[in-house]
Amino acid sequence: MMNLSRAVVRSFATTAGRRSAAVPKEQIEKGYFEIRKVQEHFQKKDGKPVFLKGSAVDQVLYRITMALALVGIGGMGKLFYDLSVPKKE
């Protein structure tokens, strides 16, 4: 039992770097520069919120979300009005 627990602890204590295959330095640098490029795009001071800086799809999704929220608020207002004002018969 003691040997099993040591083996389990050792497997969790070792780093993944020793077990994984080596990645070429050129590939690491390429990925780093791509990430920096994306970071610079999203951190640019242009007055837009970060959730609209991606593409036109972001703007479409944002506008759909706002429209659905307004429809929901309008529906709640109608519901409250219908429940609070008695119907005339």
Automatic annotation (TrEMBL):
InterPro entries in UniProt: Cyt_c_oxidase_su7a_sf, Cytc_oxidase_su7a_met
Annotated Gene Ontology cellular component terms: mitochondrial inner membrane; respiratory chain complex IV
Coiled-coil ranges per UniProt: none
Main location: mitochondrion
Localisation: Mitochondrion inner membrane
Superkingdom: Eukaryota
Keywords (A to Z) from UniProt: Membrane, Mitochondrion, Mitochondrion inner membrane, Transit peptide, Transmembrane, Transmembrane helix
Transmembrane segment boundaries: 60-81
GO biological process: mitochondrial electron transport, cytochrome c to oxygen; mitochondrial respirasome assembly; regulation of oxidative phosphorylation
UniProt family annotation: Belongs to the cytochrome c oxidase VIIa family.
Protein name from the UniProt record: Cytochrome c oxidase subunit 7A, mitochondrial
